Amino acid sequence: MNYCPICGTKLNEAIVDQTKVEKCDSCGFIDWNNHTFVSCVVVAYNQQREFLMVKLKGQEEDKVTFPGGYRNHNEPLEEAARREFFEETGMTLHEIKLLDVYASESHRLIWVIYEGQIDRDVFIENDEVKSVFFVNKGTKIDESTLRGNLTKKLLMQVLKSTK
């Protein structure tokens, strides 16, 4: 952050409580550089209790993960989960409930994970996702294609709980 979110003045480096921060000399605002990004992720099931995963496009071409993405400022978490799921799949969800929360300190990222039932499972092509596929306990997934450690952790958790 370069400018104060309160008054718009350029922030300057300072030391506060023995910590390097960015401080506004006009109003006293302190940026402690402790921002955390929040991503809402969905484990979505079809009628056969298989769960949906996505294969990405672009910079992370062919990486596999669960549908989801960053929450907009002031957006309710469940709304963000539904919106991101729709944006990445074109599908809607019947009911969703909170499943878990993961954190990655190195990425300053929190995953708020929901699970739910898909209303209709027809993929609509978009800018972020190349394809979708359904996974069951017998599905083989090459771990080198997984997007990252949080994807791997969630996949293992869901597979363990899948009957």
UniProtKB/TrEMBL annotation:
Similarity section: Belongs to the Nudix hydrolase family.
Positions of the Nudix hydrolase domain: 33-160
Pfam family, one: NUDIX
Gene3D superfamilies reported for this sequence: Nucleoside Triphosphate Pyrophosphohydrolase (3.90.79.10)
Descriptive protein name: Hydrolase, NUDIX family
Record keywords, A-Z: Hydrolase
PANTHER family assigned: ADP-RIBOSE PYROPHOSPHATASE, DIHYDRONEOPTERIN TRIPHOSPHATE DIPHOSPHATASE
